[in-house]
């Protein structure tokens, strides 16, 4: 089973996937890591693990108005991804909003991890927003990607308590350590054929989630 991972930055979630792969705990292989940023540290992590890397830079697609450029970029991304014939495409800190055509193409085999207990705190700056609201419980969610931003069916979540002296950085760090546990787990469920997304919803081992 083949996995393509999309990143934009540090790639600590990618590292968790690579570590699981090394221990034969992922249910498949990361065959390529694709970044929209040439300096993403995650690319080094991939090279260290002997995984092929590619960069697809948005700057090459700034010709028309915003929507058209986005379509062209995503078409190129699809071309690069499909070359690797993935069973699953994993977004791991990929900081771009994807077009409808992209999302539809990988329907049911495109996952994302988001640093909040969805449906709460969709979008950016989740840790700071939760603290500003004096939230007491926070966490991370792995979900299938649909057209609705951060709104697809939730596969698994991990919760953390907010501590009195938490800053957005300490909170982010604690949430991230949970992300590293649940993302490889969700990927494995999928690749082992335990997780299915169909018209009636999401099931794990035949039970509705
Ligand atoms: C994580 O917070 C993840 O939830 C979000 O982007 C961040 C990626 O971090 N989608 P990393 O690049 O995996 O370290």
Characteristic terms for this protein:
209 residues, alpha/beta, Rossmann fold, 3-stranded antiparallel β-sheet, 34% helix, globular, binds 5-O-phosphono-beta-D-ribofuranosylamine
Task: Briefly say what this structure is.
The chain is an alpha/beta fold and 209 residues long.
Describe what you observe in this structure:
Catalyzes the transfer of a formyl group from 10-formyltetrahydrofolate to 5-phospho-ribosyl-glycinamide (GAR), producing 5-phospho-ribosyl-N-formylglycinamide (FGAR) and tetrahydrofolate. The record marks 150 as: Raises pKa of active site His. InterPro entries: Formyl_transf_N, Formyl_transf_N_sf, GART, GART_AS. This protein is an alpha/beta fold and 209 residues long. The chain has a single domain (2-208), classed as Rossmann fold (3-Layer(aba) Sandwich), CATH 3.40.50.170. The chain is 34% helix and 25% strand. The protein is built from 6 helices and 10 strands. It has a 7-stranded mixed β-sheet, covered by helices on one side. Strand 9 (201-204) and strand 10 (207-208) form a beta hairpin. The two termini are 24 Å apart. It binds 5-O-phosphono-beta-D-ribofuranosylamine (GRF). 5-O-phosphono-beta-D-ribofuranosylamine (GRF) binds next to helix 1, strand 5 and helix 6.
Strand content: 15-25%
Q: Could you tell me the mean pLDDT?
A: 96
Uncertain segments: none
- Rg value: 17 Å
CATH domain class: Alpha Beta
Domain Formyl transferase N-terminal: 2-187
Family: Belongs to the GART family.
Function: Catalyzes the transfer of a formyl group from 10-formyltetrahydrofolate to 5-phospho-ribosyl-glycinamide (GAR), producing 5-phospho-ribosyl-N-formylglycinamide (FGAR) and tetrahydrofolate.
Keywords: Purine biosynthesis, Transferase
């Amino acid at each position: 089973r083949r996995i393509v991972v999309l990143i934009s930055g540090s790639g600590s979630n990618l590292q968790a996937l690579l570590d699981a792969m090394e221990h034969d705990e992922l249910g498949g292989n990361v065959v390529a890591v694709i970044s929209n940023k040439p300096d993403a540290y995650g690319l080094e992590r991939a090279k260290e693990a002997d995984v092929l890397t590619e960069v697809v830079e948005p700057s090459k697609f700034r010709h028309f108005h915003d929507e058209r450029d986005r379509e062209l970029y995503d078409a190129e991304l699809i071309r690069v991804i499909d070359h690797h014939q993935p069973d699953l495409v994993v977004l791991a800190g990929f900081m771009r909003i994807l077009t409808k055509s992209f999302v539809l193409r990988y329907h049911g085999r495109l996952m994302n991890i988001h640093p909040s207990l969805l449906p709460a705190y969709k979008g950016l700056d989740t840790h700071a927003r939760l603290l500003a609201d004096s939230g007491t419980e926070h966490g991370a969610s792995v979900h299938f990607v649909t057209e609705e931003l951060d709104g697809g069916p939730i596969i698994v979540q991990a919760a953390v308590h907010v501590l009195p002296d938490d800053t957005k950085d300490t909170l982010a760090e604690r949430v991230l350590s949970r992300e590293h546990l649940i993302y490889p787990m969700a990927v494995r469920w999928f690749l082992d054929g335990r997780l299915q997304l169909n018209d009636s919803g999401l099931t794990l081992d035949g039970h509705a989630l």
